[in-house]
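SAMPLE LOG
Freezer: B-3
Tube label: C17
Construct: single chain, 776 aa
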Amino acid sequence: MPRLRALTAVLAFAAVAVTGAGASARPAPGSGHPASLSRTERGAVTLESLGAVGDGSLGLVLTATFRGDVERYLGQGGLEHGALALELAGASGTPAGVLDTGGGDRQVRLPAVDGHGTGATTIVTPDTVLPTAQARGVTVLRDGAQVIFYVPASELSHVAEIKLEVFATSPIGSGPLTPRAWREVLAARPAGHASVAPPPNLTCARLDAILDSRTDVSPPDLEPELVQEEHEQAALEADLGSLRGATRAALEHDLGDVAARIARLKREVAGVGGVATGLANLLRTCVSQATTTPPATTPTTPTPPPATPPPAPAVGVTQTDAAADQDMAPQPDLAFTTTAPSGVPVIDVNDQVRYQQFEGLGAAMTDSSAWLIYDNLSAASRLTLMQDLFSTDGIHLNFLRVPMGASDFTVSPIDSPDPYTYDDVPAGESDPDLTQFSIAHDLPYIIPTIQQALQINPDLIISANPWSPPAWMKANDSLDNVDLGGTLLTTAYQPLADYFVKFIEAYEDEGIPIDIIVPQNEPRSPGGSGTSYPGLTLPEADEATFISGDLEPALSAAGLDPKIYGNDLSWDKLSYAEPLASSSAAADLSGMAWHCYAGSPTVMSQLQEADPGLDQIVDECSPEIRSFGAPEYLISALRNWASVASVWNVALDPEGGPKQTDNGCPGCIGLATINEQTQAFTFNTEYYELGQVSAFVEPGAVRVDSPNFVTYGTNSSNIETVSSGLDDVAFLNPDGSQVLITYNNSTAPITFAAESNGSYFSYTLPAGAMTTFTWS
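STRUCTURE (predicted):
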């Protein structure tokens, strides 16, 4: 029988105008991100969706759905310091909300301002159900993968945004929730988040449907469990009289546990009954109002003509079509109609079926890109470029990959012609204590460029990983990986873990937080000859040993908690990712990173089905060197569970450099091309194609169901192929707006229709065009 839990936290909401939900302030190290979670626990804090129905007279019902059993892990102390934070925000002031922590029975008080003045508010942890006068009826029900909040109408004045954040580690630890601590909660970066605008109305019919769907959360369902626990208590007490010594002590311990469970269940029965009664009373009020409405009388004056129905919401259209010289070009708005089209394919955008949360699109700030941007553009041009890349007025990239040391795209000045790491020593020497560690190489142009990106987009997710550790850590004592000889020495595992710690700390000292780390770029080198540019051969068993035995412990000891992603290989290397996902490192992994150069993105769906707790990101792709191109790369990756899709260099010069020779990427271009001679930049088509997604789909959006009319596969060279036709992917933004991205990869125009909640619009998509549709 499932353990049904309910009414686990109660907190008054301030009925005043408030702002600040989703503030971009960065948390101190150690706040927000999941650390050392099992896959099951990780699923329990992975927020899938947040829905809301309500109005000013009936109140608000929020339903948060998680990937795993949040009730068990976050609600009953499986995650000792886990927390849910629910914020209400409006026009001004400080957000008010609920902090619902996992486990324990501690109560704390938080001064809060409500509509009637200043008062104390009691916060109750999940294992204690104590509705209070100060709480004024705000309640929380937990059931398996769902958490349901009911907020009375009196608490909804002036609310403009509702935000839910989930923390695997509480931003305030186990200390009291003071006003300062609440500000720390607001500033911290959570493991997951979602936000919605206040819904227009909670009709009686919708309330009835919600109650019908929650019939399993009621006192009768909890009472059999309570009876079972009471029988176990009686049996233990009967056995206790005949026992002595250690056996008696153990039985007394078990008896104490049973007594605690009985007490908790009794509180839950009372709490669930109170919530069910309150909502039922609300429903009865609805029914009473409906049945007492006086019947209509025969009018004595002519009936006025019916009011003109409100216009259907407009559909915004933006299109990139190289053949028509259109770069994110606005097209005329479309209008919805209730008439179903015939004879054309229909894309049914179903926002009731939801998949992964979208985190963003991005690119890599390689040494070459940063040098071109910072040293080869004027300050004014550099600012314009960076705003076009990272601001909401540009394409709003939200993910930035940063190589730790040299990659194959590295500037080679005359005075330093070789690749570099942060701890280079003469050949034959070593530095296991990292006394020579320094990020001095990055200070002139890499760090200032990243700092400017963060100033423009403070929510930028930064991921870092090395192409090679220092040469002295490797069997070939070299940064290259020629003939696959660059393997990691067994004596270098701990120094390499310390190397990651020093890098993260050094970058954080420069105001650059590292959100994600990946142990090694392409740890299984393509082909049998290895690479002449920096590289490392790191089999999956060795990567697992390094992560679980050295990297994660070193990060934890230093108080650092970036997310760790494994793999970082192309889609054809499922044979690397699958064993890694079930290895000793499984509990330390937040997800898998992928490249697009071989295989099909459908392997991400395979891995997601096998291990739904693992996030999937594609942190490198040069779609310009593959026949599928950027539109199909983005759509196919996002349709196959990627939360992030990133391309390779942010910027390169007209020759596709600077780069090391034989770097394996002939034909690679950046999102921007920067001419060192003219000190001017231009954008490539990929920039606009990324913008067709990133400028419209907001971080925190969820992918929703839509059909597609193409097939993903591979050719004889094991490179992704897409059949000819119409492809698409759809999202629901946190503000409730919807986005549909379409692409016609055929040689002829395609006419299609899109359907949303019973309304339709039609469009003819030119051959080769990528088009984005948005509506509320």
